[in-house]
Amino acid sequence: MGKYDYDLITIGAGSGGVRASRLAGKYGAKVAVIEESRYGGTCVMRGCVPKKLLVMGAHFAQHFEDAVGFGWTVQGASHDWGAMIAAKNKELDRLDGIYQRLLRDSHVTTVDGRGVVADPHTVEVNGQRMTAEKILVAVGGWPMIPDFPGKEHVITSNEALDLPQRPKRVVIIGGGYIAVEFAGIFNALGSEVTLIIRSGQVLRGFDQDVRSTLAEELEKTGIKIRRDCRIRSVEKHGAEYSVMFDLGDECMADCVLVATGRTPNTASLGLKEAGVKLNAKGAVTVDAQNRSSVESIFAVGDVTDRINLTPVAINEGRMFAETFFNKNPMTMDYTNIASAVFSQPPVSVVGLSEEEARKSHKVRLFISRFRPMKHTLSGREERTMMKLVVDKATDKVLGCHMVGEDAPEIIQGLAVALKCGATKAQFDATVGIHPTAAEEFVTMRDPVPDKEPEA
To answer: With the C-alpha atoms ordered 53, 206, 300, 323, is the resulting torsion angle positive or negative?
Structure first.
Protein backbone atom coordinates (compact mmCIF):
# COMPACT_ATOMS: atom_id res chain seq x y z
CA MET A 1 0.00 0.00 0.00
CA GLY A 2 2.88 2.34 0.72
CA LYS A 3 2.02 6.02 0.95
CA TYR A 4 -1.78 5.71 1.14
CA ASP A 5 -4.03 5.08 4.15
CA TYR A 6 -6.09 2.53 2.24
CA ASP A 7 -5.99 0.46 -0.91
CA LEU A 8 -9.60 1.44 -1.60
CA ILE A 9 -12.00 4.07 -0.34
CA THR A 10 -15.60 3.56 -1.42
CA ILE A 11 -18.02 6.47 -1.22
CA GLY A 12 -21.51 5.03 -0.77
CA ALA A 13 -22.68 1.87 1.00
CA GLY A 14 -25.34 0.80 -1.48
CA SER A 15 -25.53 -2.49 -3.34
CA GLY A 16 -22.61 -1.86 -5.71
CA GLY A 17 -20.33 -0.20 -3.18
CA VAL A 18 -20.88 -2.85 -0.53
CA ARG A 19 -20.26 -5.72 -2.94
CA ALA A 20 -17.05 -4.20 -4.29
CA SER A 21 -15.77 -3.35 -0.80
CA ARG A 22 -16.59 -6.72 0.73
CA LEU A 23 -14.84 -8.63 -2.03
CA ALA A 24 -11.83 -6.32 -2.03
CA GLY A 25 -11.56 -6.79 1.74
CA LYS A 26 -11.89 -10.55 1.35
CA TYR A 27 -9.03 -10.49 -1.15
CA GLY A 28 -6.76 -8.77 1.36
CA ALA A 29 -7.14 -5.10 0.50
CA LYS A 30 -7.38 -2.44 3.19
CA VAL A 31 -10.77 -0.86 2.53
CA ALA A 32 -12.89 1.95 3.98
CA VAL A 33 -16.53 2.67 3.13
CA ILE A 34 -18.00 6.13 3.70
CA GLU A 35 -21.78 6.48 4.07
CA GLU A 36 -23.73 9.61 4.99
CA SER A 37 -27.08 7.89 5.46
CA ARG A 38 -28.10 4.28 6.10
CA TYR A 39 -26.24 1.20 4.92
CA GLY A 40 -27.88 -0.57 2.01
CA GLY A 41 -28.33 2.39 -0.31
CA THR A 42 -31.23 3.28 -2.57
CA CYS A 43 -32.51 -0.25 -3.16
CA VAL A 44 -32.58 -1.41 0.43
CA MET A 45 -33.52 1.84 2.18
CA ARG A 46 -35.36 4.02 -0.35
CA GLY A 47 -36.32 1.84 -3.29
CA CYS A 48 -36.80 -1.78 -4.26
CA VAL A 49 -37.11 -3.37 -0.83
CA PRO A 50 -39.42 -0.98 1.06
CA LYS A 51 -41.46 -0.30 -2.05
CA LYS A 52 -42.05 -4.00 -2.71
CA LEU A 53 -43.03 -4.53 0.92
CA LEU A 54 -45.72 -1.88 0.40
CA VAL A 55 -46.74 -3.52 -2.88
CA MET A 56 -47.13 -6.83 -1.07
CA GLY A 57 -49.23 -5.15 1.59
CA ALA A 58 -51.45 -3.57 -1.07
CA HIS A 59 -52.00 -6.92 -2.79
CA PHE A 60 -54.06 -8.16 0.15
CA ALA A 61 -56.86 -5.81 -0.87
CA GLN A 62 -57.26 -7.77 -4.11
CA HIS A 63 -56.79 -11.08 -2.35
CA PHE A 64 -59.69 -10.35 0.00
CA GLU A 65 -61.90 -9.34 -2.92
CA ASP A 66 -60.94 -12.39 -4.98
CA ALA A 67 -61.48 -14.79 -2.08
CA VAL A 68 -65.25 -14.25 -2.22
CA GLY A 69 -65.42 -15.95 -5.63
CA PHE A 70 -63.81 -19.04 -4.09
CA GLY A 71 -66.38 -19.35 -1.31
CA TRP A 72 -64.63 -17.36 1.40
CA THR A 73 -66.44 -14.85 3.56
CA VAL A 74 -64.17 -11.99 4.55
CA GLN A 75 -65.66 -9.66 7.11
CA GLY A 76 -64.23 -6.71 9.00
CA ALA A 77 -60.97 -6.52 7.06
CA SER A 78 -59.34 -3.11 7.35
CA HIS A 79 -55.90 -1.69 6.75
CA ASP A 80 -53.67 0.18 9.18
CA TRP A 81 -51.21 2.23 7.14
CA GLY A 82 -49.18 3.22 10.20
CA ALA A 83 -48.75 -0.42 11.25
CA MET A 84 -47.48 -1.33 7.78
CA ILE A 85 -44.98 1.54 7.76
CA ALA A 86 -43.78 0.58 11.26
CA ALA A 87 -43.27 -3.03 10.17
CA LYS A 88 -41.43 -1.87 7.07
CA ASN A 89 -39.14 0.36 9.14
CA LYS A 90 -38.35 -2.48 11.52
CA GLU A 91 -37.24 -4.59 8.56
CA LEU A 92 -35.07 -1.77 7.20
CA ASP A 93 -33.39 -1.39 10.60
CA ARG A 94 -32.60 -5.10 10.50
CA LEU A 95 -31.14 -4.84 6.99
CA ASP A 96 -29.08 -1.77 7.93
CA GLY A 97 -27.48 -3.80 10.71
CA ILE A 98 -26.85 -6.75 8.42
CA TYR A 99 -25.06 -4.62 5.83
CA GLN A 100 -22.83 -3.08 8.48
CA ARG A 101 -22.00 -6.51 9.87
CA LEU A 102 -21.20 -7.90 6.41
CA LEU A 103 -18.68 -5.10 5.95
CA ARG A 104 -17.15 -5.64 9.38
CA ASP A 105 -16.87 -9.37 8.74
CA SER A 106 -14.96 -8.56 5.54
CA HIS A 107 -12.51 -6.40 7.55
CA VAL A 108 -13.82 -3.19 5.99
CA THR A 109 -13.67 0.05 7.98
CA THR A 110 -16.94 1.99 7.99
CA VAL A 111 -17.01 5.77 8.32
CA ASP A 112 -20.26 7.67 8.88
CA GLY A 113 -20.35 11.04 7.11
CA ARG A 114 -20.35 12.68 3.71
CA GLY A 115 -17.32 11.87 1.62
CA VAL A 116 -16.07 14.51 -0.82
CA VAL A 117 -13.29 13.88 -3.33
CA ALA A 118 -10.45 16.36 -2.72
CA ASP A 119 -8.00 15.03 -5.31
CA PRO A 120 -7.42 11.78 -7.26
CA HIS A 121 -6.29 9.96 -4.12
CA THR A 122 -7.93 11.90 -1.27
CA VAL A 123 -11.40 11.97 0.27
CA GLU A 124 -12.48 14.44 2.93
CA VAL A 125 -15.04 13.33 5.52
CA ASN A 126 -15.99 14.91 8.84
CA GLY A 127 -13.21 17.49 8.43
CA GLN A 128 -10.52 14.85 8.02
CA ARG A 129 -8.63 13.64 4.97
CA MET A 130 -8.27 9.99 3.98
CA THR A 131 -6.09 8.73 1.14
CA ALA A 132 -6.31 5.65 -1.04
CA GLU A 133 -4.68 4.14 -4.10
CA LYS A 134 -8.15 3.82 -5.63
CA ILE A 135 -11.42 5.64 -5.00
CA LEU A 136 -14.74 4.02 -5.92
CA VAL A 137 -17.77 6.26 -6.32
CA ALA A 138 -21.02 4.37 -5.65
CA VAL A 139 -23.40 7.08 -4.47
CA GLY A 140 -26.36 6.09 -6.65
CA GLY A 141 -29.08 8.45 -7.79
CA TRP A 142 -31.58 10.86 -6.26
CA PRO A 143 -35.16 11.82 -7.18
CA MET A 144 -35.43 14.74 -9.58
CA ILE A 145 -38.07 17.44 -9.11
CA PRO A 146 -38.82 19.65 -12.13
CA ASP A 147 -38.77 23.39 -11.62
CA PHE A 148 -42.29 24.83 -11.29
CA PRO A 149 -44.04 27.21 -8.87
CA GLY A 150 -44.95 25.40 -5.66
CA LYS A 151 -42.49 22.53 -6.03
CA GLU A 152 -41.74 22.89 -2.31
CA HIS A 153 -45.17 21.36 -1.63
CA VAL A 154 -44.52 18.04 -3.39
CA ILE A 155 -42.92 14.84 -2.16
CA THR A 156 -40.77 12.24 -3.92
CA SER A 157 -40.64 8.47 -3.62
CA ASN A 158 -38.29 8.92 -0.63
CA GLU A 159 -40.97 10.63 1.47
CA ALA A 160 -43.81 8.50 0.06
CA LEU A 161 -42.32 5.48 1.81
CA ASP A 162 -42.61 7.21 5.19
CA LEU A 163 -45.94 9.02 5.08
CA PRO A 164 -47.49 8.91 8.56
CA GLN A 165 -50.91 8.22 7.10
CA ARG A 166 -52.36 7.29 3.73
CA PRO A 167 -53.66 10.30 1.78
CA LYS A 168 -57.20 10.01 0.45
CA ARG A 169 -56.41 11.76 -2.84
CA VAL A 170 -53.02 11.45 -4.52
CA VAL A 171 -51.77 13.16 -7.66
CA ILE A 172 -48.71 11.42 -9.10
CA ILE A 173 -46.68 13.32 -11.67
CA GLY A 174 -44.78 10.93 -13.95
CA GLY A 175 -45.42 7.79 -15.93
CA GLY A 176 -42.31 5.70 -15.30
CA TYR A 177 -41.90 2.61 -13.16
CA ILE A 178 -41.80 4.49 -9.84
CA ALA A 179 -44.98 6.40 -10.71
CA VAL A 180 -47.03 3.35 -11.74
CA GLU A 181 -45.81 1.33 -8.76
CA PHE A 182 -46.90 3.96 -6.24
CA ALA A 183 -50.14 4.47 -8.15
CA GLY A 184 -50.91 0.79 -7.61
CA ILE A 185 -50.01 0.90 -3.92
CA PHE A 186 -52.17 3.90 -3.06
CA ASN A 187 -55.06 2.83 -5.28
CA ALA A 188 -55.26 -0.70 -3.90
CA LEU A 189 -55.30 0.62 -0.33
CA GLY A 190 -58.17 2.97 -1.07
CA SER A 191 -56.76 6.28 -2.24
CA GLU A 192 -58.12 8.16 -5.23
CA VAL A 193 -55.19 8.28 -7.65
CA THR A 194 -54.59 10.53 -10.65
CA LEU A 195 -51.53 9.86 -12.80
CA ILE A 196 -50.21 12.82 -14.81
CA ILE A 197 -48.04 11.97 -17.81
CA ARG A 198 -46.50 14.29 -20.40
CA SER A 199 -46.57 11.66 -23.16
CA GLY A 200 -49.43 9.66 -24.59
CA GLN A 201 -48.71 6.50 -22.60
CA VAL A 202 -47.06 5.16 -19.43
CA LEU A 203 -43.66 3.41 -19.24
CA ARG A 204 -41.74 5.22 -21.94
CA GLY A 205 -39.05 2.95 -23.39
CA PHE A 206 -40.98 -0.29 -22.91
CA ASP A 207 -42.62 -2.32 -25.67
CA GLN A 208 -45.77 -0.60 -26.97
CA ASP A 209 -47.98 -3.62 -26.26
CA VAL A 210 -46.69 -3.66 -22.68
CA ARG A 211 -47.41 0.05 -22.28
CA SER A 212 -50.95 -0.07 -23.64
CA THR A 213 -51.82 -3.23 -21.74
CA LEU A 214 -50.64 -1.89 -18.40
CA ALA A 215 -52.43 1.43 -18.90
CA GLU A 216 -55.67 -0.38 -19.67
CA GLU A 217 -55.34 -2.53 -16.55
CA LEU A 218 -54.48 0.46 -14.34
CA GLU A 219 -57.55 2.30 -15.55
CA LYS A 220 -59.73 -0.74 -14.87
CA THR A 221 -58.77 -0.48 -11.21
CA GLY A 222 -59.92 3.13 -11.04
CA ILE A 223 -56.62 4.96 -11.55
CA LYS A 224 -57.15 8.08 -13.65
CA ILE A 225 -54.49 8.70 -16.29
CA ARG A 226 -54.23 12.19 -17.74
CA ARG A 227 -52.17 11.96 -20.92
CA ASP A 228 -50.27 14.70 -22.76
CA CYS A 229 -50.57 16.82 -19.67
CA ARG A 230 -48.05 19.08 -17.96
CA ILE A 231 -48.09 20.62 -14.51
CA ARG A 232 -48.12 24.40 -14.25
CA SER A 233 -48.04 24.95 -10.48
CA VAL A 234 -48.97 23.59 -7.06
CA GLU A 235 -50.56 25.70 -4.33
CA LYS A 236 -51.28 24.77 -0.73
CA HIS A 237 -54.76 25.58 0.59
CA GLY A 238 -55.03 24.54 4.21
CA ALA A 239 -54.52 20.78 4.40
CA GLU A 240 -54.96 20.19 0.66
CA TYR A 241 -53.20 21.12 -2.56
CA SER A 242 -54.35 22.59 -5.83
CA VAL A 243 -52.53 21.23 -8.87
CA MET A 244 -52.86 23.47 -11.93
CA PHE A 245 -52.27 22.03 -15.40
CA ASP A 246 -51.07 23.60 -18.64
CA LEU A 247 -54.60 23.83 -20.07
CA GLY A 248 -55.77 25.85 -17.09
CA ASP A 249 -57.78 23.20 -15.26
CA GLU A 250 -56.93 22.01 -11.76
CA CYS A 251 -57.10 18.99 -9.50
CA MET A 252 -57.32 18.93 -5.71
CA ALA A 253 -55.24 16.46 -3.71
CA ASP A 254 -54.07 15.62 -0.21
CA CYS A 255 -50.63 14.65 -1.52
CA VAL A 256 -48.66 15.44 -4.68
CA LEU A 257 -45.97 12.91 -5.53
CA VAL A 258 -43.39 13.73 -8.20
CA ALA A 259 -41.89 10.64 -9.87
CA THR A 260 -40.30 12.08 -13.00
CA GLY A 261 -37.02 10.22 -12.79
CA ARG A 262 -33.76 10.15 -10.89
CA THR A 263 -30.40 11.82 -11.50
CA PRO A 264 -26.88 10.71 -10.51
CA ASN A 265 -26.11 11.87 -6.98
CA THR A 266 -22.86 13.65 -7.87
CA ALA A 267 -23.65 17.25 -6.86
CA SER A 268 -21.08 18.78 -4.48
CA LEU A 269 -19.07 15.54 -4.47
CA GLY A 270 -15.88 17.19 -5.75
CA LEU A 271 -15.63 14.94 -8.80
CA LYS A 272 -15.58 17.61 -11.48
CA GLU A 273 -13.00 19.60 -9.53
CA ALA A 274 -10.83 16.47 -9.30
CA GLY A 275 -10.90 16.12 -13.07
CA VAL A 276 -13.57 13.42 -13.37
CA LYS A 277 -15.61 13.72 -16.56
CA LEU A 278 -19.38 13.88 -16.01
CA ASN A 279 -22.02 13.70 -18.74
CA ALA A 280 -24.88 16.17 -19.20
CA LYS A 281 -26.95 14.44 -16.50
CA GLY A 282 -24.08 14.50 -14.01
CA ALA A 283 -23.27 10.80 -14.38
CA VAL A 284 -19.68 9.60 -14.08
CA THR A 285 -18.38 8.54 -17.49
CA VAL A 286 -16.56 5.21 -17.18
CA ASP A 287 -14.97 2.60 -19.42
CA ALA A 288 -15.60 -1.15 -19.51
CA GLN A 289 -13.56 -1.57 -16.32
CA ASN A 290 -15.55 1.12 -14.48
CA ARG A 291 -12.64 3.57 -14.60
CA SER A 292 -13.41 7.28 -14.89
CA SER A 293 -11.36 9.86 -16.80
CA VAL A 294 -9.09 9.98 -13.71
CA GLU A 295 -6.99 6.84 -13.54
CA SER A 296 -7.43 6.25 -9.80
CA ILE A 297 -11.17 7.01 -9.58
CA PHE A 298 -13.83 4.45 -10.50
CA ALA A 299 -17.62 4.31 -10.37
CA VAL A 300 -20.34 1.64 -10.35
CA GLY A 301 -24.12 1.58 -10.15
CA ASP A 302 -26.70 4.26 -10.82
CA VAL A 303 -24.14 7.07 -10.54
CA THR A 304 -22.89 5.96 -13.98
CA ASP A 305 -26.43 5.99 -15.45
CA ARG A 306 -25.94 2.89 -17.58
CA ILE A 307 -28.55 0.29 -16.61
CA ASN A 308 -29.94 1.45 -13.28
CA LEU A 309 -30.81 -1.84 -11.63
CA THR A 310 -29.60 -3.21 -8.31
CA PRO A 311 -28.29 -6.55 -9.68
CA VAL A 312 -26.35 -4.60 -12.32
CA ALA A 313 -24.68 -2.47 -9.63
CA ILE A 314 -23.86 -5.60 -7.64
CA ASN A 315 -22.27 -7.26 -10.66
CA GLU A 316 -20.35 -4.09 -11.57
CA GLY A 317 -19.02 -4.02 -8.01
CA ARG A 318 -17.96 -7.63 -8.31
CA MET A 319 -16.24 -7.05 -11.66
CA PHE A 320 -14.33 -4.11 -10.18
CA ALA A 321 -13.11 -6.11 -7.16
CA GLU A 322 -12.18 -9.16 -9.22
CA THR A 323 -10.27 -7.08 -11.76
CA PHE A 324 -8.27 -4.88 -9.41
CA PHE A 325 -7.97 -6.88 -6.20
CA ASN A 326 -8.04 -10.54 -7.29
CA LYS A 327 -6.02 -10.44 -10.56
CA ASN A 328 -9.09 -11.80 -12.36
CA PRO A 329 -10.05 -9.26 -15.05
CA MET A 330 -13.78 -9.25 -15.76
CA THR A 331 -16.17 -6.97 -17.65
CA MET A 332 -19.93 -6.69 -17.47
CA ASP A 333 -22.18 -8.08 -20.20
CA TYR A 334 -25.15 -5.72 -20.51
CA THR A 335 -27.14 -7.76 -23.03
CA ASN A 336 -30.42 -9.48 -22.13
CA ILE A 337 -30.72 -8.12 -18.60
CA ALA A 338 -34.22 -8.79 -17.29
CA SER A 339 -36.17 -6.16 -15.41
CA ALA A 340 -39.51 -5.82 -13.66
CA VAL A 341 -42.02 -3.14 -12.74
CA PHE A 342 -43.98 -4.01 -9.61
CA SER A 343 -47.12 -2.30 -10.78
CA GLN A 344 -50.52 -3.92 -10.29
CA PRO A 345 -50.51 -6.02 -12.42
CA PRO A 346 -46.72 -6.36 -12.64
CA VAL A 347 -44.62 -6.04 -15.79
CA SER A 348 -41.46 -7.92 -16.63
CA VAL A 349 -39.28 -8.00 -19.74
CA VAL A 350 -36.02 -9.36 -21.05
CA GLY A 351 -34.36 -8.63 -24.36
CA LEU A 352 -35.51 -6.31 -27.12
CA SER A 353 -38.86 -4.63 -27.50
CA GLU A 354 -40.59 -4.90 -30.86
CA GLU A 355 -39.60 -1.33 -31.67
CA GLU A 356 -35.93 -1.92 -30.80
CA ALA A 357 -35.80 -5.22 -32.70
CA ARG A 358 -37.24 -3.75 -35.89
CA LYS A 359 -34.31 -1.34 -36.13
CA SER A 360 -31.96 -4.17 -37.12
CA HIS A 361 -34.05 -7.31 -37.64
CA LYS A 362 -36.98 -8.65 -39.59
CA VAL A 363 -39.19 -10.02 -36.87
CA ARG A 364 -42.04 -12.39 -36.15
CA LEU A 365 -44.31 -11.54 -33.24
CA PHE A 366 -46.26 -13.89 -31.01
CA ILE A 367 -48.82 -12.36 -28.65
CA SER A 368 -51.25 -13.98 -26.24
CA ARG A 369 -53.92 -12.17 -24.22
CA PHE A 370 -56.07 -14.13 -21.82
CA ARG A 371 -57.98 -14.06 -18.57
CA PRO A 372 -55.98 -15.90 -15.89
CA MET A 373 -57.56 -19.05 -14.51
CA LYS A 374 -57.80 -17.48 -11.05
CA HIS A 375 -60.13 -14.77 -12.29
CA THR A 376 -62.61 -17.15 -13.89
CA LEU A 377 -63.84 -17.61 -10.30
CA SER A 378 -62.79 -14.34 -8.69
CA GLY A 379 -64.69 -12.37 -11.31
CA ARG A 380 -61.90 -9.83 -11.72
CA GLU A 381 -61.61 -8.45 -15.26
CA GLU A 382 -57.80 -8.34 -15.23
CA ARG A 383 -56.14 -9.86 -18.27
CA THR A 384 -52.59 -11.09 -18.92
CA MET A 385 -50.50 -10.22 -21.98
CA MET A 386 -47.46 -12.20 -23.15
CA LYS A 387 -45.30 -11.41 -26.15
CA LEU A 388 -42.33 -12.95 -27.94
CA VAL A 389 -40.19 -11.04 -30.43
CA VAL A 390 -38.40 -13.45 -32.79
CA ASP A 391 -35.73 -12.88 -35.44
CA LYS A 392 -37.21 -14.04 -38.76
CA ALA A 393 -33.83 -14.98 -40.22
CA THR A 394 -32.38 -17.02 -37.35
CA ASP A 395 -35.50 -17.97 -35.31
CA LYS A 396 -33.69 -16.60 -32.24
CA VAL A 397 -35.92 -15.18 -29.53
CA LEU A 398 -34.96 -11.52 -29.17
CA GLY A 399 -37.39 -10.46 -26.45
CA CYS A 400 -39.92 -11.76 -23.94
CA HIS A 401 -42.53 -9.41 -22.45
CA MET A 402 -45.29 -9.99 -19.93
CA VAL A 403 -47.95 -8.01 -18.10
CA GLY A 404 -49.74 -10.05 -15.48
CA GLU A 405 -49.52 -11.81 -12.14
CA ASP A 406 -46.14 -13.47 -11.45
CA ALA A 407 -44.55 -11.83 -14.50
CA PRO A 408 -41.19 -11.16 -12.73
CA GLU A 409 -40.94 -14.75 -11.49
CA ILE A 410 -41.68 -16.13 -14.96
CA ILE A 411 -39.41 -13.79 -16.92
CA GLN A 412 -36.48 -14.53 -14.61
CA GLY A 413 -36.43 -18.09 -15.95
CA LEU A 414 -36.81 -16.98 -19.54
CA ALA A 415 -33.84 -14.64 -19.09
CA VAL A 416 -31.63 -17.72 -18.80
CA ALA A 417 -33.02 -19.01 -22.09
CA LEU A 418 -32.29 -15.74 -23.88
CA LYS A 419 -28.80 -15.64 -22.40
CA CYS A 420 -28.25 -19.06 -23.94
CA GLY A 421 -29.52 -17.87 -27.34
CA ALA A 422 -32.72 -19.92 -27.39
CA THR A 423 -34.75 -20.14 -30.59
CA LYS A 424 -38.50 -20.13 -31.04
CA ALA A 425 -38.26 -23.77 -32.13
CA GLN A 426 -36.69 -24.60 -28.75
CA PHE A 427 -39.46 -22.72 -26.96
CA ASP A 428 -41.98 -24.76 -29.00
CA ALA A 429 -40.20 -28.02 -28.16
CA THR A 430 -40.44 -27.30 -24.43
CA VAL A 431 -43.34 -29.03 -22.70
CA GLY A 432 -45.31 -26.61 -20.55
CA ILE A 433 -46.45 -27.06 -16.95
CA HIS A 434 -50.25 -27.21 -16.87
CA PRO A 435 -52.25 -25.38 -15.70
CA THR A 436 -50.01 -22.32 -15.39
CA ALA A 437 -49.80 -18.94 -17.06
CA ALA A 438 -46.12 -19.54 -17.80
CA GLU A 439 -46.90 -22.41 -20.19
CA GLU A 440 -48.32 -19.88 -22.63
CA PHE A 441 -44.77 -18.84 -23.50
CA VAL A 442 -44.12 -22.30 -24.97
CA THR A 443 -47.50 -22.82 -26.63
CA MET A 444 -47.79 -19.70 -28.83
CA ARG A 445 -47.67 -21.16 -32.34
CA ASP A 446 -49.16 -18.60 -34.71
CA PRO A 447 -47.42 -15.27 -35.30
CA VAL A 448 -49.53 -12.14 -35.50
CA PRO A 449 -49.84 -10.55 -38.96
CA ASP A 450 -46.68 -8.63 -39.76
CA LYS A 451 -47.04 -4.86 -39.47
CA GLU A 452 -44.36 -4.22 -42.05
CA PRO A 453 -44.35 -5.33 -45.72
CA GLU A 454 -41.68 -7.74 -46.86
CA ALA A 455 -38.58 -6.02 -48.25
So the answer is: positive
